[in-house]
Write a structure and sequence with these properties.
The termini are far apart. With about 220 residues, this protein is of the alpha/beta class. Strand 1, helix 1 and strand 2 form a beta-alpha-beta unit. It has 5 helices and 14 strands.
């Protein structure tokens, strides 16, 4: 088993989607544990990372590709093809079970909207509550917020979208955004929370009930 780390990079089997938010995550990762969700090993290798743990049914890699990953010392956690969880979900389970609280997912967005939505919904897994988990793609970062106060670091002009997940979100108060919310709800369906704008290099979002997706885009979207 690889040595314990406080951080993890999980590479999923989607598009590479390189960009400023991805690079920000890679820079902050330091000596993070490198985990591949099956074919995500190719994405990891494209960024120059050696996989420490590979998880899944191994149906997205050729035999030669898998042999090369294992020859480089990766720990393989194999699962049968007929399973109830996606490879990315299995990888998230592994990382959480190892006590890692800082998790960045790369390659989680691709040309299948069902897979992309499923990957975003994985942020709501109960075992991820209280952990800093973010899905990175190009110039965007997506994270799931639970009730409380949350801080956003960026640059004036960055685009912030707040999207209710699973129902209405109540009591939202924002600071540092051009279009403020003052103890107001965002309802599941209407697009009121899309395309707000940071007025400085920091903003806050506070709310009392519900689940809120925060999508942070570098610059004006």
């Amino acid at each position: 088993m690889p040595p314990m780390s406080k951080k993890a990079l999980i590479f999923a089997n989607g598009d590479r989607n390189d960009g400023p938010m991805v690079r920000r995550a890679l820079t902050a990762a330091g000596d993070a544990l490198i985990v591949a969700a099956d074919g995500g090993a190719r994405v990891a290798q494209a960024f120059g990372y050696r996989v420490a743990v590979i998880v899944g049914d191994m149906d997205s890699l050729t035999g030669e590709e898998l042999d090369a990953v294992l020859a480089n010392g990766a720990e393989a956690l194999r699962h049968p093809p007929e399973k109830d969880a996606t490879d990315l979900e299995l990888a998230l389970n592994v990382v959480a079970e190892r006590g890692i609280d800082w998790i960045r997912i790369i390659g989680g967005v691709g040309d299948r909207i069902d897979q992309t939505l499923g990957n975003i919904y994985l942020l709501a897994l109960p075992l991820l509550a209280g952990r800093d988990v973010r899905l990175m793609a190009g110039k965007q970062e997506t994270r799931l917020l639970h009730p409380g106060e949350h801080h956003i670091s960026g640059t004036a002009g960055d685009t912030i979208s707040l999207i209710p997940l699973g129902g209405a979100v109540q009591g939202i108060i924002t600071d540092g955004l051009y279009y403020p919310l003052k103890d107001e709800p965002l309802l599941f369906g209407p697009a009121r929370g899309i395309s707000n704008v940071m007025t400085g290099d920091a903003a806050t979002v506070t709310f009392r009930d519900g689940l809120l997706l925060l999508v942070h885009t570098v610059g004006r979207a």
